[in-house]
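Could you help me review a protein record that somebody else here produced? Do not assume that whoever made the record got everything right. The record follows directly below this note.
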Amino acid sequence: MGLEMERMGRCARLAWEHGVEVHRNTTVARPGVTTAHLLLGVLAEDTCAGGLILGRLQLDLQLAHRTTEFVLLHGRRPSTAEAQTIEWAGVVHTGAAHRVLHLAVEEANLYSATYPIGTEHLLLGILRVPDGMGYGILHYFGVTEERVRATRDELWQLLRSPE
């Protein structure tokens, strides 16, 4: 496994594994794990930072989960030319999902090169890939990168309490 996988915190790893599992068990063929699969993982880990941020933004996590499953089942399939895939941690991902994972590393690196990758970083990565299904779903619900960053910063202020 790559360095990025080793840096994933418990919640981010569970979210990624959930997305991979959904991809493997789906009846609809997708070229690889998509940004929507990664979003399903973040939504499933509702007690982790990404889920807490979305909850604070008043996103109905269950509705968002069902909507994401619906989009994966009924959404447009990419043409062969659009279906670029890249292997990451031994699993095939779409190009957009691969970009999300690298952007999550970049987000964690804003704090330090050893800061664990969390679901908040996956969430921000999804919101930075506008051609991904995950981005479209989040924007459908009014979730933006700016709102997530502001809410994340509020949450981190709570975590820094000196008491």
Notes: The two ends are 38 Å apart (CA to CA).
